Amino acid sequence: MPNTLTSVSVLILAGQREGVVDPLCAAADVERKALIPILGKPMLNYVLDALTAAGLSSPFHVSGFDADYDARLVQSPSAPGPAGSAYAALTDGISFPCLVTTCDHPLLTVEMLEIFISGAKESGADFCVGLAPKSVIAPAYPETKRTYWKFSDTPVSGCNLFYVANEKGLAVIEFWKDAQHLRKQPLKLARMIAWGLVAKYLTGRLTLAEAFNYVSKRLNIKAAPVIIPIAEAAIDVDKPVDKELVERILSGRAA
After folding, report:
1. Alpha-carbon gap, residue 45 to 28, rounded angstroms
2. Which residues on neighbouring strands pair with residue 101, listed in sequence order?
3. Count of alpha carbons within 13 Å of 209, Cβ hemisphere only?
4. What is the CATH number of domain 9-249?
5. Preceding amide of 142 cis, omega within 30
């Protein structure tokens, strides 16, 4: 079977807020989050190895980190915030379709990538988001605390996987870029999204499909979720407890 991933370019977001000391970096005595060792191996290397094994188009673009670190990387510009960096990089000559992921996803596998990208392509959407259902994550790792989008039909958690099929898909990145500046101003954020939609979500009446239909109509594109039925797809490394869990999972894989 031909590899349909070879035509997909990759952008890895690996920046971090300047002037803010990440506790994980401090504990590991490294300056960048991408270099935090997981079982003795820099976290970014796990991501690079998964992308390489999947046969995605290389070199992989990286934003917020020095591309000289690895021959598989090429430099892309960065900007304040992950959405700003994604937009700056995606408008700097990266070919579409493009997979966007992050440096803190050492559990990423070829299977996850294949499920997500094939699902994104089949959807025909301009922009896709990878999501894992709580019904899969919670039984597998009841001890882990994940952030869930509590839709009425299926609570889900993000997987740090995004698919931008074409230039139209950049509209979501632009919207995200504007919205991230309002994260500490909930009233303005709610006004930007739509009061009715926010109220429906807060009262537990908004379905996953309704949310994506709203985004599609609001931005005049087609946006779609891709469900990844693998618990580990939603586990990244943000806190020491995450690092411990990831190392335990990777040790189990090796065994």
Report:
1. 16
2. 12
3. 2
4. 3.90.550.10
5. no
What is the pLDDT tens value at each position of the chain, 255 positions in all? 356 687 999 999 999 877 677 899 999 999 999 999 999 999 999 999 999 999 999 999 999 999 999 999 999 999 988 999 999 999 999 999 999 999 999 999 999 999 999 999 999 999 999 999 999 999 999 988 888 999 999 999 999 999 999 999 999 999 988 877 665 565 666 677 788 888 998 899 999 999 999 999 999 999 999 999 999 999 999 999 999 999 999 998 887
Separation CA 30–CA 113 (nearest Å): 28
Q: What are the tokens at 85?
A: 């960096």
What sections of 124-239 are H helices per DSSP? 134-140, 170-180, 186-193, 195-202, 208-219
Kindly list the strands in the beta sheet with 98-102, ordered across the sheet, starting from the edge strand earlier in the chain.
73-76, 60-63, 9-13, 98-102, 156-164, 127-133, 223-227
Q: Which amino acid does the sequence have at 241?
A: V
Measured CA to CA, the distance from residue 103 to residue 148 in angstroms comes to 21
Q: Tell me the whole-structure pTM to 2 decimals.
A: 0.94
Closest CA to 88 of 133, 96, 80: 80
d(CA 148, CA 154): 10
Q: Are 243 and 236 in contact (CB under 8 A)?
A: no
3-state class of 129 per DSSP? strand
Residue owning tokens 């407890």: 241
Q: For the chain, where are the alpha helices, taking DSSP H only?
A: 23-28, 43-54, 82-90, 110-123, 134-140, 170-180, 186-193, 195-202, 208-219, 240-254
Maximum distance among all Cα pairs of the chain, rounded to whole angstroms: 51
The encoded tokens of residue 79 equal 């900007």
